Amino acid sequence: MARVGVFVCFCGANIADYVDVPQVVEEVKRIKEVKYAVEYKYMCSDPGQGLIRDAIVQNKLTSIVVAACSPRMHEKTFRKALSDAGMNPYLLEVANIREHSSWVHQKDKKAATEKAMDLCRMAVAKSIANEQLHEISVPVTKRALVIGGGIAGIQAALDIADARIPVVLVEKSPSIGGKMAQLDETFPTLDCAQCILTPKMVDVASHPYIELIPYAEVLELQGFVGNYKVKIKKKASYVNFKTCTGCGACWQKCPVKVPNEYNMGIDKRKAIYTPFPQAVPNKPVIDAEHCTMLTKGKCGICKKVCLPGAIDYEMQDEIIEREVGAVVVATGYDMWDPTPYEEYGVGRFKDIITSLEFERMVSANGPTNGVPQRPSDGKVPKNVVFIKCVGSRDEAKGIEYCSKICCMYTTKHTILLHHKVHDSHAYVFYMDIRAAGKGYEEFVKKAQVDTGTTYLRGRVSKIYKKGDKLMVRGEDAQIGQVVEVEADLVVLATAVSAPKDNPELARLLGISYDKYGYLSEAHPKLRPVETAKAGIFLAGCTQAPKDIPETVSQASACAAKVCGLFAGDTMKKDPMVSTINNEYCSGCQNCVKVCPYGAIVTDEVPIGHGSKELRTVAKINEGVCQGCGSCVAICRSMAINLAGFTDPQIINEIVSI
Amino acid sequence: MITLGSQGKNTFLEDVNKKSGANVLECYQCGKCVSTCPVSQYMDFPPREIMQMIKLGLRNESYMANSHWFCLTCSACSGRCPREIDIPAVMEAVRHLAIEENYINDSKKVKEIRKFHEIFLSMIKRYGRNYELRMMAEFNIRTRNLFKDMHLAPKALLKGKIPLGVKPLKSAKAIKRMYEVAERLEKNK
Predict the structure, then answer these.
(1) Measured between alpha carbons, how far is A388 from A385 in angstroms, rounded to an integer?
(2) Which residues of chain A does B29 touch, with a Cβ-Cβ cutoff of 8 Å?
(3) B29:A457 CB<8 A
(4) Using 50, 70 and 90 to split pLDDT, how confident is the model at A416?
(5) How far is CA A266 from the centre of its chain?
(6) Which of A430, A444, A478, A490 to mutate to test the interface with B (most CBs of B within 10 A)?
(7) What totals of helices (H) and strands (E) does chain A contain, helices first?
(8) A225-248 pLDDT, tens digit each
(9) Which residues from A are below 8 Å from B4, CB to CB?
(10) Does residue B169 register a pLDDT over 90?
(11) Domains located in chain B, CATH noted
(12) Is the dihedral of CA A183, A186, A191, A197 positive or negative?
């Protein structure tokens, strides 16, 4: 015979003002299984919990009902109170008489009280069928996978590795460094991007806990939190990194010239190349698309000049597997392509460049040795117009959102321009100046006052050619007049967009992404680092546009999450998971299809006892199951039960009202 | 339409900054000056727009504006300016530069304001102080509006706000000499 204790909370005035709590207590006392019922002002407080603890011991209670706020609020608190009294914590039932009754029925106290009584009766009925449940322990593979070797991936990898947790860092290009390696100086302090980034890159390569896999892609991820198996494709580099010394003889002699991606195609690289001199690893790869040896079988110079004999034209893509417990996704961003801006003459006028192209030009290791040049005639520009929000905040041609970093990098560009060309003048067409960040507004003031950058408030309507100049027309809303600026060079602050491979990556990882292609966090405010899939975390622009300080913060946050996950040898998990009764399972696999977490797989069991013939049944992975109950609802043979929400429990609830 | 970028260095900005001692580039166009200014509604370009025009190097447009003539130099704007720009000094600099370079707004309003300034200064030169009655009379005659504000006269007279005579200051002669020195300096410049 069950002995139920009911504890009804006033929640100060939150419940008591609208629900007649003493009457609820009187009502539940009439249920024959209820051996103890009491009300208290704040049941969650220490004396309130004490009341529960004492009652359990004194009245030999077998299950507990707390009628109070939402279980999301205090279920854990009360479970702990049960544990402290030596009772299985899952014998607790919470009747939510605050959010579900007092708060929503403030105008009708009588109805609110009646509903509270119903909720309590249901909880009591359910609790009678409650069973003792035990936390599930899941083993953990203490190794993390970091996808993407930009500043986000680098920071996350270093922070995790510093906690002596092995990291596998996968980067798709031949070198880590990402977009930050392409930057000249960084706002608002103007410290040199290379100077602060390359030491970190070297740290990654030399860290005993980091396995760096460059020129590779993630193909497949299987398993669940703590126990993932990942398949990684190492693209053929045609260079044996073990024997290559990085001497550079091969790329000096290579006759094939290809537009250099690192310099935004402003100059050329060879078909065998390292992306940039500070690359990590500093080993070349052969671009199979352009190498004449690989495409036509002619040439082979690099092999002839390579003294260590590191060149191998026969190399094939290799697929390797790693076991990891957590994944950090840090795939960065793409620059938005401004081609739709026909009125600006994008593509028609050579002297219109994007901000990243300008960044390469003013960079000391860039194609023009740090002095900006007009692509048309190589002259040093004097009047430079910067146009902000190209693609950003433009529902017609671009994307709705604000790219967040353009205001600041354009400010930086005007200052850098002035540093490199002293008699130049920068004009900025802007809609707003969004300078929210430490030292950002001061940085904008520096540009406006010290550098003398002219800010014109308005979107540019068109650009046309006049002689060798570009005429940039827009409104200056500050004086309400149309202005035209005679420009030598126009720089478009193009939007930040999600990496185009993100949707595919999201699918293979089993996480979600938004309409723009950014990967989705579990909660926009309170869980900005986690994804909805346990053990997968997000760092940097792959989640949304952000600047370097924010990216680094988020990467370190990811590392903290990974370290937290790996803190014990096993992970504890709520036991509210589904179980399958093989006797009833018909093997229809409907549950496999509806499970949003991929927690159900198929299994083979003998048809009968001792039989050798096999039949298919569903099998639930406790580690992955989140207890949503979708499989229970879809199962036609009622073979699935969800612990904590079993059929007898639910039926009891229904019958009680 | 305004064309920028072809005229090279912004000399107008440099002139105004030098003359006023302020830095117009400090202005970030918040408009607090405009909403503070008691006469901004009479200006064709309120102070914020004048600041932007200086930044863009629009010399002629700034000279021809009536704003610097309407400015009372009451300093309410600069008192509230978040960037602490001495806006009245900027207005004065534009006014001086406009006179020096002979760009004078010839609207009726500006003409009247200039006449008012001239008459006021002539009063100080003559008496060392203001002689209200004569000033008003002279202003009304010279602007050909004899009965302007005449309805206020009886009340003002009764309250003793308009003394019928004037007693020149003891230092009137010294003040006159100051004028002469200033005029000589102006000529020799």
Answers:
(1) 10
(2) 457, 478
(3) yes
(4) very high
(5) 33
(6) A478
(7) 17, 34
(8) 898 999 999 999 999 999 999 999
(9) 427, 454, 483-486
(10) no
(11) 11-100 (1.10.1060.10), 108-188 (no CATH)
(12) negative
Q: Would an 8 Å CB–CB cutoff place B113 in contact with chain A?
A: no
Q: A161 with A340: CB under 8 angstroms?
A: no
**Residue of chain A nearest B2, judged by CA positions:** A483
Residues of A with Cβ-Cβ distance to B49 under 8 angstroms: 478-480
pLDDT, mean of residues B25-47: 95
Which residue's entry shows tokens 């994008």?
A: A346
Please report where in the chains the tokens 């603890």 appear, as a residue.
A53
pLDDT one-digit tens code per residue, A77-133: 999 999 999 999 999 999 999 999 999 999 999 999 999 999 999 999 999 999 999
Residue B133 tokens read as 């009655």
In this complex, the residue of A449, A480, A483 whose CB is nearest that of residue B23 is A449
Residues 6+ apart with CB under 8 A from A509: A218, A221, A327, A329, A533, A536
Q: According to the model, what pLDDT value does residue A225 have?
A: 87
pLDDT mean over B83-92 = 96
Q: How close A479 gets to chain B, by Cα (Å)?
A: 5
Residue whose entry in the numeric block shows the structure tokens 């009708």: A108
User: Which residues of chain B does A448 touch, with a Cβ-Cβ cutoff of 8 Å?
Assistant: 25-26, 28
Which residue segments constitute the domains of chain A, with CATH numbers given? 4-128 (3.40.50), 144-230+319-330+501-565 (3.50.50.60), 249-305 (no CATH), 334-497 (3.50.50.60), 578-655 (3.30.70.20)
Instruction: Render pLDDT for A485-544 as a digit per residue (tens, 0 to 9).
Output: 999 999 999 999 999 999 999 999 999 999 999 999 998 888 999 998 889 999 999 999
Cβ-Cβ contacts under 8 Å, A425 against chain B: 5
Of A452, A480, A486, the CB nearest to B5: A486
B95 touches chain A (CB under 8 A): no
